[in-house]
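Design review, sub-item: ligand-bound model
Attendees: FS, YL, KQ
YL presented the inputs for the iron/sulfur cluster complex:
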Amino acid sequence: MSTAPGRVSEVFYSLQGEGPSVGRPAVFLRLQGCDVGCAWCDTRYTWDPGLGEPLDLPAIERRIAAEFGACPLLVVTGGEPLQHPQLGDLLDWAATRFARVEIETSAVAPPPRTGSRFAYNASPKLPGVSPRWAATWEHVSAYLALPETTFKVVVRDLPDFTALIGLARRHGIPAERVAVLPEGLTDEAVRAHARELAEPCKRAGFRLSPRLHIWLWGARRGV
Ligand code: SF4
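KQ shared the predicted structure:
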């Protein structure tokens, strides 16, 4: 992990696209840097920790106030926020300004902050998706201990779904805390995978999450 000051990819106002707050208006703060290397990654522009702008919290606060106004929900995303050198400071700042802070993460490291305002959307990876997939399951127990954590796992097909069933059982994740995200960068692909996964989700008791941002905007950035 880099020890250089962290950087920001983009800040924008949109709707939370998936997970427990799907559809809610939110400010998105996308951090730069990730070495998890997922084959399905739709934000490869965030991988290089040297790109983007330096993280300047006072400037971000001014911009949020001027452009977006008051918003109760902040989504901290990436990249991999857990690899950002200033994440702790960022979360301390966010907890004083937002009623709810959702952190989108692969769960490749333990949760750096806990508290009633923080909700982790942990997205551990299935075998074959990332060379570091096993590391994303190592801290599941720490996330399970936080009642606001949702485990949202990207799944493409039935073999993936079978792998998810096995991993969820092995790590003791209750079915009601699992959200299945159908893989795809187009509405057509997400719908096709969702149709294949609907019946298995019903049998397993998993939530099948929509991917609202793909439906509305496809793979566009900053929306
Ligand atoms: S953890 Fe997220 S940002 Fe990093 S490669 Fe995987 S999907 Fe992309």
